[in-house]
Amino acid sequence: MAKPYPPPAFVAPAKPGEPVGFFTDSSICIGCKACEVACKQWNNVPVDDIRYLNSSYDNTGELSANSWRHVAFIEKKQADGGVAWLMNSDVCKHCKEAACLDVCPTGAIFRTEFDTVVVQADVCNGCGYCIAACPFGVLTRREGIASHPETNGVAQKCTLCYDRLSGGEEPACAHACPTKSIQFGPLDELRERAQQRVADLHAEGRTEARLYLADERDNGIGGAGSMFLLLDEPGAYRLPEHPVVPTRRLKEIWGAAAMAAGLAVAGVLFAFGSSRR
Is residue 136 left, alpha or beta, with left meaning phi > 0 and alpha meaning psi from -120 to 50? Predict the structure, then answer.
């Protein structure tokens, strides 16, 4: 049976071994950016070069090492000539098949006991493999921040407030969201709540509402720890329509390469043996 909506005011502490994550309901996002501010304050994320981007009221532009939450302001033209807002707070997806984790050569990126993906700044060597591997463009290297010289050149992203989870608290962004557009909890519970929310919106005639990354049907990343309710196609929010982890077929590729190499060696040995007869 679906949980009541809106979400409960009290969120139970995360339990080790139980996958947790975010459900971001863009239908009730008001674009206040409280999530961005709370994230920066709690995680000591430096203020980036915030300026007018000539792109609506969006002043952070995208997710980066210095913007772990990004509130997108999308202007959508209406049939009557008016303009409607599409607002959505984007964040790392904490992929179940995380390409960043797969390609990290130092072990700086690891999966926690809450099934979230975290970068250890003191272990990262700044190689950038994770940046190229991420299908969402979430990761970047932090550069030129005088107040945080120890993390310059290091890849950074949302940790889903790993320290807060370990202390029995919810992530700072979810805690600060005034409308509960950002909801935190066990993924199974969030998924059930998200499905009920879409059904309710459809019953109200808002048939454009849809879920993104709620399961594996619209992606090739094995599912995600961050799911979204959107009011348009993912592309309208500058999100990939069907993201795929580039390392998904890595084992098959290496296996095929090893088999080809083995056949080549066998062929050389056979030819060498035949020539000596």
Answer: alpha
pLDDT digits (tens, 9 = 90+) for 50-81: 777 776 778 888 999 999 999 999 988 888 88
Average pLDDT value for residue range 151-179? 95
Six-digit token pair at 212? Answer: 């993104």
Quick check: 215 pLDDT over 60? Answer: yes
CB 155 within 8 A of CB 141: yes
pLDDT band at 274 (very low <50, low <70, confident <90, very high): low
Q: What is the CA radius of gyration of the chain?
A: 22
Q: How far apart are CA 9 and CA 5, in angstroms?
A: 11
Q: Which residue has the higher pLDDT, 152 or 11?
A: 152
- Using CB atoms within 10 Å of the CB of residue 5, give its burial: 0 to 12 exposed, 13 to 18 middle, 19+ buried: middle
Residues 127 and 205: their CA atoms lie apart, in Å, by 49
Instruction: Compute the Cα dihedral for 184, 39, 95, 57 and give only its sign.
Output: positive
Residue 276, SS3 per DSSP:
coil
Query: How far is the first Cα of the chain from the last one, in angstroms, to the nearest whole number?
Result: 77
Whole-angstrom Cα distance, residue 100 to residue 131?
7
**Which residue from 94, 111, 82 is spatially nearest to 22, judged by alpha carbons?**
94
Q: Are 208 and 231 in contact (CB under 8 A)?
A: yes
